[in-house]
């Protein structure tokens, strides 16, 4: 449910694996405004592996990031996409939507979900569209319909939430001549302005002002008045092409799965949009969930594999929420935040601190395995592995066994495909065999505490293992 970037990428993942997909979207047309405009290094890697190089070619490279307005460099990241990549969200959505349609996903626009009833082997969805009410029977339902979407509410997911205490207004405006400012803290609040292709994105927060109860976007006159009060500049002569208000409320689903209903993106975790983390965390949710849901729907998955979606992604979003809340205090906390900013400015001068922050901001530091230096849970993209035909792209429909030494593993001995690779980086001394998940993360490598058979048992259904091993 939801034809935003998260729902569309998930549809692409499922259709690539041969799973039928219906996407229900309330809006009649794709959005044309750019709510988020930044892709992290990990998201860029994932999109490259899925053939979205044309989208990435449109993106402007930004080699730096910030933590609460305190900048640091990203160029030393171990990724071919080190840095952030600036591209309007509507372009990302357009590319994903076109691919989903090409792959055969059905997108129902102007259609709202009005009811959910879960049965023993299906979910009955009641929807209302241009032709009136209808019912759709689905094996599984995934709510990618945003923080106020219907799936989370109708399915009864519990959330931990905080009420809003601060509000920010933003607008895209033409005809302005104001200087760019990235994170300007002023006595009366906070202001951002950035002009690109003749359109200026302004964002403003007035310190101490109560959150306004709204049923729609603010008027441009309200944004202009607040901007003038905080900055002293008059922008009322511009022409607004997009208006928005948002606050610092948060919500995090305590579980990402309830039976045959799952959540991804803002439906699962909602927070103040700082640093583009919401979009990126959601897209990475889709990649993590896609292969697991596809394998489950096709009867190929090990029991419990689908539950690992929550196990792996919930902690990632929890960390993002903590980082966003800390940055909110640094940016919007008024004069009381200055001592903390001074200390953090000192800390960001340390190499280890910058390295830690860069790993978090790029999402490359996220692992799906035990802590420590082992390979399990690590992204294979950083290992620089090559096949006989070129760089290894981990986007297959199922797990694959990589061999780095002749004779380490051969076809017919294991219930998964075996692929010979070369370690050009020399980063895997002594490693001969790696079990790779479809999303590009290492599920097992020789030298780990568990054996390969146990690792395969966590991914594949027992009957599939038996059948494939006999082939």
From TrEMBL:
Gene3D superfamilies registered for this protein in UniProt: 3.30.70.2450, 3.40.30.120, FAD/NAD(P)-binding domain
Q: Which cofactor does it need?
A: FAD
Q: Which domain of life is it from?
A: Bacteria
GO MF entries: FAD binding; oxidoreductase activity, acting on paired donors, with incorporation or reduction of molecular oxygen, NAD(P)H as one donor, and incorporation of one atom of oxygen
Q: For this UniProt record, give its keywords in alphabetical order, as a comma-separated list.
A: FAD, Flavoprotein, Monooxygenase, Oxidoreductase
Q: Which Pfam families match?
A: FAD_binding_3, Rng_hyd_C
The FAD-binding domain covers 2-322
Extract the coiled-coil ranges from the record: none
Oxidoreductase listed as a keyword? yes
- Spell out the InterPro entries in the cross-references: FAD-bd, FAD/NAD-bd_sf, RIFMO-like
Protein name per its UniProtKB record: FAD-binding monooxygenase
């Amino acid at each position: 449910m939801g034809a935003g970037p998260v729902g569309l990428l998930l549809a692409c993942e499922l259709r690539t694996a041969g799973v039928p997909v219906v996407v229900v979207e309330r809006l009649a047309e794709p959005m044309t405004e750019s709510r988020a405009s930044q892709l992290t290094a990990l998201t860029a890697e994932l999109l490259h592996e899925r053939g979205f190089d044309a989208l990435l070619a449109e993106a402007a490279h930004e080699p730096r990031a910030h933590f609460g307005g305190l900048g640091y460099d990203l160029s030393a990241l171990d990724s071919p996409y080190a840095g952030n990549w600036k591209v309007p969200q509507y372009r990302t959505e357009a590319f994903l939507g076109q691919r989903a349609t090409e792959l055969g996903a059905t997108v129902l626009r102007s259609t709202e979900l009005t009811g959910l009833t879960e049965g023993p082997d299906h979910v009955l969805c009641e929807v209302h569209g241009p032709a009136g009410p209808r019912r759709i029977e689905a094996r599984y339902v995934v709510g990618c319909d945003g923080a106020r979407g219907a799936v989370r509410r109708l399915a009864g997911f519990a959330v931990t939430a905080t009420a809003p205490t601060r509000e920010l207004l933003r607008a895209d405006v033409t005809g302005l001549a104001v200087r760019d400012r990235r994170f300007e803290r002023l006595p009366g609040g906070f202001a951002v302005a950035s002009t690109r292709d003749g359109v200026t994105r302004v964002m403003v927060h007035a310190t101490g002002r109560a959150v306004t109860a709204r049923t729609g976007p603010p008027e441009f006159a309200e944004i202009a008045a607040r901007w003038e009060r905080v900055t002293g500049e008059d922008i009322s002569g511009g022409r607004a092409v997009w208006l928005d208000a948002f606050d610092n409320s948060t919500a995090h689903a305590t579980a990402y799965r309830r039976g045959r209903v799952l959540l991804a993106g803002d439906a699962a975790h909602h927070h103040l949009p700082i640093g583009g983390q919401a979009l990126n965390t959601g897209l990475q949710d889709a990649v993590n969930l896609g292969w697991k849901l596809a394998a489950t729907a096709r009867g190929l998955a090990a029991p419990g594999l689908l539950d690992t979606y929550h196990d792996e992604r919930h902690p990632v979003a929890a960390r993002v929420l903590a980082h966003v809340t800390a940055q909110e205090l640094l940016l919007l906390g008024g004069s009381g935040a200055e001592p903390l900013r001074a200390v953090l400015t000192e800390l960001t001068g340390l190499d280890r601190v910058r390295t830690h922050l860069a790993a978090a901001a790029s999402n490359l530091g996220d692992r799906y395995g035990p802590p420590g230096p082992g390979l399990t849970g690590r992204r294979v993209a950083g290992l620089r592995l090559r096949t006989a035909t070129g760089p290894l792209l981990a986007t297959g429909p199922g797990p694959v066994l990589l061999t780095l030494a002749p004779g380490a593993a051969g076809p017919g001995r294991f219930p998964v495909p075996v692929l010979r690779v070369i370690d050009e980086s020399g980063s895997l001394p002594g490693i001969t065999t790696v079990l790779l998940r479809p999303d590009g993360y290492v599920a097992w490598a020789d030298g780990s505490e568990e054996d390969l058979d146990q690792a395969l048992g966590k991914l594949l259904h027992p009957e599939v293992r038996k059948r494939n091993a006999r082939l």
